Amino acid sequence: MRKFIVGAAIVVAAGGVASVAGAASETETFVCNGKPTEIEIHGRVGIIDGQKYLAHNIEVSGSFDPVAPGEPTQTFEDTQWTSGRTGGLHCTQHTVTVTAEGTEVFDISLDAIPIGRP
Fold first, then answer.
1. Three-class HEC string of the chain
2. Is 22 exposed, middle or buried (0-12, 13-18, 19+ CB in 10 A)?
3. 54-86 per-residue burial string, b: 16 or more CB within 10 A, e: under 16
4. Does residue 32 have a pLDDT over 60?
5. How far apart are CA 28 and CA 95, in angstroms?
6. Mean pLDDT for the chain?
7. Which residues contact 57 (CB under 8 A, 6 or more apart)?
8. Distance in angstroms (rounded) separating the CA atoms of residues 107 and 94
């Protein structure tokens, strides 16, 4: 399996939506409640316009379609921190990366509830 798929839960649940504790934060764009939104990522916590949000109900899916003939498309799905809570923001991110090796498609869906100020 491609490295992208093997590490996808860690990369997304720990990279796209979270980062290693103590590591520098990063900013990613998600579509939250229908609006492109810049989120400063700090672990399961994201900061949007000075408001802290906690990510939960995270669903990740992806695929890798290799260019090489005869190689099958590989898929990945994972769900993390499913709290069942509602409210807050519903955010999604869809990325497609085309390389010489093939095409990677990655989707993230999560809910984020406000938890306080930074």
1. CCHHHHCHHHHHHHHHCCCCCCCCCEEEEEEECCEEEEEEEECCEEEECCEEEEEEEEEEEEEEEECCCCCCCEEEEEEECCCCCCCCEEEEEEEEEECCCEEEEEEEEEEEEEEECC
2. exposed
3. bbbbbbbbbbbeeeeeeeeebebeeebeeeeee
4. yes
5. 12
6. 79
7. 81, 82, 83, 84, 85, 109, 110, 111
8. 5
Q: Position of tokens 């990655």?
A: 106
Six-digit token pair at 105?
């498609």
- Check residues 116 and 21 and name the one with the higher pLDDT: 116
pLDDT tens profile 63-80: 999 999 999 999 999 988
Q: How far apart are CA 116 and CA 118, in angstroms?
A: 7
What is the pLDDT at residue 107?
A: 94
pLDDT of residue 9: 37
